[in-house]
Amino acid sequence: MSAATELRDILTEGDELTIVCHNNPDPDCLASALALGRIAADAGIDERRILYSGDISHQQNRALVNLLEIELQEFDADIVRDREPGSLLAFVDHAVPGVNNHVPDGTLVDVVIDHHPTDDIEAGFQDHRDDVGATATILTEYVRELDTELDDQLATALLFAIRRETLGFLRGATAAEYEAAGFLHGQADRDLLRKLSSPAVSSATVDAIADAIENRQVFGAVLLSNVGRTSERDALPQAADYLATLEGVGTTFVFGIVGDSIQLSGRTTDSRVNVGSVLHDAFDDAGSGGGHREMAGAEIPLGIFADYTSNDRHLVDIVEQVVTARLLAELNIDTDKGDTQENEAG
C-alpha cells in the first residue's frame, strides 16, 4: 500500500481534522496544510481547521495567506487537548509535539508528514522523508496519486512553496521537486506566482538586514552577525540568505532578539558544515535548534539573559557575546590562533 493510500484510509475513519502548523509557519508548511485539508475533504471530513502559533511576519508568507485566502486559526491548546474519538490531529512540516510548536509533550498525533531530519517520531501515520527538498513535494505526490482536485489556488500554493523552500531549485532540490513542479506548472497562476515572489518589504525588515550587514564578523569562511532587537523575525533568514552571497563566505549565522527570545538562522554552501547540527548541538541545552544541512534555525528563551540588565543595548551585547562564543566553539574556530580573517562589526 502506498503512503497516499494509507493516509486516505486513515482519514476516512475520522470525523474532523485539526492540522497544526509549526511556529511562525513558512510557505512549505502553509501549502502542505492546505493540500492535506483538500485530501481530507475528499476523504469525507467536513470539519477541518489549520492552526498556527507565533507570527506570519515574512512578507511572502503574509502574501501567500492573503492572496490565496488560506483560512487559519490561532493555536488553541483546548482544541488539541480535548479531542473526541474520531477527531484527528496532523502535523505538516514538523513532527514532534513540543518541538517548534505549542502542542504539549506526549500528545498523540495521528498524522505526520515532514522532510526535516528528526528522530523519535510517534504517529499513527508518518511519512518522513529527509531526502526530499520540501514537504510540499510529498503532498503534491499525494494530490496526484489520489486524484485530488487541483485548482489554481492549490497548485499555486504548492509550486510556490517548493520554489521558496529550495531557493528556486538551487538548495536541496531533488528530482522529486522537479517532477512535482512539472505536474503543478500547468495549473498554477503565473500572475500570482510573480506577486508572491516579489511582495513589498517593510522598512523594519530593510533596517534589520542593514544592521546585519553593518554588524557582520567574518572568521575565515564563516560569517556571524546580529540585528539587535527587531520585530521582524523573518528578517533573520533573509539577512542570512543575503550575507551568504558575500565573496569568500561559505557559512552564515544571523541572530537577534525577537520578543522574549533569541532567534537564529543559519545557511551554508560548505559541504563540511551541517548548520542544523551546529545549531542543535550549540543551543539544545538552552532552547531548540536544528534543520537541514544547508539551512536551519534556533530559538532560545531570553530567560536569564534578561535578568542581567534592563538596558536593551547591554542585553544585546551580552547575547552577542554568548551566542558568538557558542557558535565559534561548536565550529572549532579559535580566534586566539588567528582564525579571524576579518572583523567588520560596526
From TrEMBL:
UniProt-listed Pfam families: DHH, DHHA1
Highest taxon in the source lineage: Archaea
DHHA1 domain span: 224-309
InterPro entries attached to this UniProt entry: DDH_dom, DHH_sf, DHHA1_dom, Oligoribo/pAp-PDE_c-di-AMP_PDE
Domain annotation DDH: ranges: 18-162
Molecular function, one GO term: nucleic acid binding
PANTHER family the record matches: BIFUNCTIONAL OLIGORIBONUCLEASE AND PAP PHOSPHATASE NRNA (PTHR47618:SF1)
Protein name as catalogued: NanoRNase/pAp phosphatase, hydrolyzes c-di-AMP and oligoRNAs
